[in-house]
Amino acid sequence: MRPAEDARLTLRHDEVNLARLNLVLAQNRTTLQEWEKEINLDALGTIKVQCKAARGSVVPHGIDNDILLGIVTAAVLQNTPVDGVIWVTVLELLQLSGVGVNSRAYQAVDESLERLRSSDFRIAECWYDQGQYQWRTVSFSIIYKHWAEDNTASPTSVGQWRAETKIGIRIDDELMQSIRKGYIRPLDIETLEKLKQPMARNLYRTLSILRTKDEMHYQVPLSAWAVHLGLHHMRADTIMRALHQAHQALIDTGYLKDVESTGRGLHRILTYVFAKDRHVETDPESLILLTARHISGPRALHLLQQYGVSRIVEATQAFDQLLMTEYAKKIRNKPGFLADLIENPEKYVAVLKGYAPLPKATPSLQGEPPRQDAPDELPTDSGGMVRSVLASLVTREKISTAEEAVVISMHAQGRVTPMEVTGLVTHARPAEVIGRWVVRAPA
User: Residue 259's pLDDT is what?
Assistant: First the structure.
C-alpha cells in the first residue's frame, strides 16, 4: 500500500520503543544541544537515554515527533523494505505525520529530517528487542541517511522542497528491525487529528503507551514527567503553564476526563483521569501466531486490527491442519495463503471440509451461522492461542507431541505464561527450553 492511499487508513502506526522512551522533546522550540534522562515511569524498569545534536544544531523537538510518526507509518505501509529505505513525497510524509500542509511545512520537513539524522542517541538497557525478548543497549541516529529527488523543469525551483519532491529515507537498522518484527502499535487517528499542537500530540502518545491496560488513570511526579517530556531546567510553575494547553486539548477531545494535581513545586503529583477507553489494543500473542508463520510484523498487525483475534486463531488452526494433509503440496506461498485464508475464508470452505476437520465452532470458515443456543466456543482465550503455537512447532518438527502435551499441562497449571510459550517460536532449540521449564520449581 502506498502512502498516497492514506486517506483510506483509520490508524497511524507507532514503534513501541520510540513511544515509551520519548526521544523527541515535546516543546516547540529549544536551544538544547544535548540532554540526558534517567527516570522510572512504569513497571518495565528505568528509562536511561542520552541525546547529543551535531555541532551547530539542536536536538529533535516539537514537530520532529510528528515527522517520526509519519516515517514509521510509511515503513509499515511499505512493508518494511529490505534495504531500510522508504520513499515518499513531501506531501505524503506531511499527510502521514498529521501536519498541516503549507509552504512553510515543506521546509520544516527538511529541517526535521536533518535533526533526526544528525542527533545521536545512546539508550542504556531499555531498548526492547521483540525478537529476542530482551532489553538492550543501543546507540544510533534515528535516520541513517536521507536525500531528495526533484524533477522540476524550473531552474528557480531546484533545491526548493515542494509537495511533489520525492524523499528517500533510510531508517536506522535497529529501528527498522523492530518495526519489521511487529513491535508497533496503532494510534487513534480521530484523537490525533483533533490535537493541533506538537505538545498535545506528544502528550497523547506518551500517555497512551504508559497507561496500564484497563486502568482509567495514570499518576506521575511532576519532576519526572518534566524530564521525560523534555521540559528541562524549568520551574514548576513554568512547567505547569507549558502543560496546561495540552491538558485542555486532551480534555476537549474526550481522551481525558480531568487532570488532578496534589502537592507543591516539583514535588507535585499529576493524576491523569481518562474519559474512556479509546486506545486501540493489540494482542501480542495473536501477532506471534502470524509472525511465527512468516507473515511480516506490519502485515500481521494489519490483519489483527482488521479481522480480530477470533479470526486469527481459527484461521491459523485451520492452516496448520491443512499443512498435515495432501493439500499442503498445493500451497506454494504459505504466508500468502494464510493471509488469504484470514481475509477470504469463504473461498476455502470446501477445501477445509474435504481435507481436514475444522476447529470447533468456526462459523466464518464453515459458512454457517452460530447456534443461538450454544455459547461461542472459539478458542479466543490464552489456552487456545498456546495450543495453536504449539501445534505450529509440532508441524515444523521443532518439538514432539509429548513435549506439546507437557507444555499444555504446565500452562493449565499456571507454571508457564502464554508469552513464554509464544516466545518458543524465536528459539533455535525450543525443546531445550521446555526441558528447563520441567525441572524448575512450580510457580
Answer: 97
Q: For residue 162, what are the CA distances in angstroms to 4, 126, 143?
A: 16, 38, 21
Let me know whether 254 and 334 are in one domain. no
Mean pLDDT of 237-258: 94
* Mean per-residue pLDDT over the chain, rounded: 81
Based on the number of CB atoms within 10 Å of its own CB, is 178 exposed (0-12), middle (13-18) or buried (19 or more)?
buried
Lowest mean pLDDT among 49-53, 427-431, 437-441: 437-441
Single out the residue in 233, 255, 274 at which a domain terminates.
274
Count of domains forming the chain:
2
- Could you tell me if 404 and 394 are in contact, meaning their C-beta atoms sit under 8 angstroms apart? yes
Q: What is the pLDDT of residue 409?
A: 81
Dihedrals φ, ψ of 186, to 5°? -85, 155
C-alpha cell at 24: 523527541
Sheet holding 166-171, edge to edge: 85-89, 166-171, 143-149
Q: What is the reported pLDDT for 279? A: 47
Identify whether residues 210 and 239 lie together within a single domain: yes
Q: Give me the domain span that covers residue 331.
A: 284-439
Q: Which residue has the higher pLDDT, 428 or 232?
A: 232
Q: To 10 degrees, the CA torsion angle through 134, 140, 142, 146?
A: -140
**Measured between alpha carbons, how far is 298 from 267 in angstroms, rounded to an integer?**
41
Q: How far apart are the first and last CA of the chain?
A: 46
Written as nine digits, the cell of 269 is 503529583
Q: Would you say 137 and 123 are in contact if contact means Cβ atoms under 8 Å apart?
A: yes
